[in-house]
Amino acid sequence: MSARVGPDVARVGPVLEASESGHAVAAAILASNPGATLEDRGAYLRVSVADRCVVVRRDIEERLGRAFVLPRDLELVMPAFHGFLRLRDDAAEWRSEAP
Amino acid sequence: MRLLRHEWLDLARKLDWSYSYVQERSVFPEAISGRPWLEQAAWEDWDEPYRTSFGEYVSAQHEKEASIVAVREAVGRVGDFARHDRAWLSALKLHGATLPLAEFAAVIGNLRAARFGRDGAWRTMAALGALDELRHTQIPLAVLHDLVAWDAQFDFTHRLFHTDGWVAIAARHFADELLLGSNPVEFAVATNFVFETGFTNLQFVGLSAVAHAVGDRMFEKMVQSIQTDEARHAQIGGPVLRKLCEHDHAYAQFLVDKWFWRSFHFFAVVTGFAMDYLTPLPHRKQSFREFMDEWVLGQFERTLREYGLARPYYWDEFLASLDYYHHQAYASAYTYRATMWFDFTLPGPEERAWLAEKYPQSWPEFAPVWERISARWQAAGPDVEWFTHGVTPIGFCSLCQFPLCAGTPRRNAARVVEHEGRRLIFCSEPCRHFFEQEPERYAAHETVVERILAGKAPANLIALVRDYFGLSEDLWGKDAVHGRYDWLAGGAAPGSAE
Amino acid sequence: MKDVLMPLYGFVRGDTLGVLVLVRASDSVGTLIDTLEQATAVRVAPRPQARLFAGERELDRASTVAAAGLSALERVDLVPEGG
Description:
The complex is a heterotrimer.
Chain A: E1 11-17, H1 20-32, E2 37-40, E3 44-50, E4 52-56, H2 57-64, H3 72-77, E5 80-82, E6 84-87, E7 91-95
Antiparallel strand pairs in A: 1-3, 1-5, 2-3, 4-7, 6-7
Helix pairs in contact in A: 1-2
Chain B: H1 5-13, H2 24-27, H3 30-33, H4 54-75, H5 78-82, H6 86-98, H7 100-116, H8 120-145, H9 156-159, H10 166-180, H11 184-214, H12 217-233, H13 237-247, H14 249-278, H15 288-306, H16 315-321, H17 325-334, H18 349-358, H19 363-380, E1 415-419, E2 422-426, H20 429-437, H21 439-442, H22 448-453, H23 461-468, H24 486-489
Helix pairs in contact in B: 4-12, 6-14, 7-8, 7-10, 7-11, 8-12, 11-12, 11-13, 11-14, 11-15, 13-14, 14-17
Chain C: E1 5-12, E2 19-24, H1 29-40, E3 51-54, E4 57-58, E5 75-79
Parallel strand pairs in C: 1-5
Antiparallel strand pairs in C: 1-2, 3-4, 3-5
């Protein structure tokens, strides 16, 4: 799959509940994905990155100061997302191309 | 010795086996499992990303329920709802009546996939999906129907689907086919992929931002919590669609085209009314059109492209209707408000200025309609509901069963078609097209007009509303303030009554 | 021929939906126009000299509904003079 650039590039990432955990996930993504943007819509946060968005569990846990179990704890705060989701025990990833 | 999660997970959620004393085709008959019928080996690589076990599901759902209960105890009482604007309460009545019992039908669709879906992981996620949909029925019924003691119109949270009102007929026509009458393959594409991935985000996440602005924390929490379930079980859709594209590309395209169109009409009414008319102006952030852009348009197009599918053939007509359809429907519904179970608000000068800014292309065609209705309120004075209410029966589409509101005020898109000696009318070209693709599915259904002409329903509007739609005068929709708008009392509204 | 009641789908330019009107086969097209205007008056102000069409075909005001060739559940369009 070639890298996509230009105006047609898909922005992917989670839509998060505006809760403590949701903010922690958003902050972890913003810190580790260059070009990541955050839109605060009051009830929800839309985080998006061009083409590929990754968040590592440990980064979320450091911000929260407690365990964050995947996929369970992400599901609790993620009512929607853009892109194709991949979940592992230690990270979550959203990609623009289908698996 | 304790097994690690990845060592036991697939045994718990993706279990398939070879049949020794029965044919696979008997275990999964095509008539109920769906087409294309493929050997099990063809489904082996099927998977979805959440990969959740039942134990993990119960633990997550427990947490979700606990947080809903906490919010309800804090801000979900009658007193909390009584503070809201009456127009917003109408948005809640519309949501409460059209969605929870449709979700109950989705339990059945999920259970069918939990038995007849072709892969173990698919069946597991569909079983969890069925449990999800029970929750999506029961939570809003508990929260919203409880308000019936304070406001009788909330009774329709339970009652709508059990009536023969025109909204109920249209909603059942849609939900029955989508959720009850589809096999697991069609269900996965229609419900999981198109409806839950595209459109429910509008009503359950987009509208949660509106609820936040309104200060309705209960609704905000309820719909977002519901959508965290949907985001998970909707993941069935993509992998099924991918298989379908590999083996029957044309059928995949047909299902996507049909269900995108049908879902759009449903949500244009339910979500379009709420966002562009029933949300008090100071709390509006984005228009329905802008929410469609944010949640559906780019994402849907990109996803179709990833699967090698084209945009639906009616795409230009669809894009044009984003500026018209729900405005046509709302103005029509306002002047037939007694046929529904919630109150309507008349957009005043400030609301119209906002709508003109958000819909610069189409609003000039709607402004005269609202000027006319306003002038009639002025001529009659407050409380004279009938002077701004239609009395003539209206036409309904032979496919979607909604009023004939497609096209524009300048050119309504309805068309009459002969079908086996019967004259049918469709609100739009795609509604005609999808009827003609599967006439055996739809032909036996009668529109409200056909029921009236057959003598099954009364032609007189008051009799129709009272005796057939099940709405008594205390329940039927009225103007939210009975025409007492400050801006109307000042006289000099633009336009005149005659 | 019996003077049957005929249901027609009526669309008035400027309106937001289609209505179902009942006319008699012996009624004039002018009466049908009045019926359509009254049925939609709540949303669209009646306009003098409006013209009625069945498809591309303009119907003569003085003609009867039957003589104009209309049949049950046909679509008619009411358009103000000048479009």
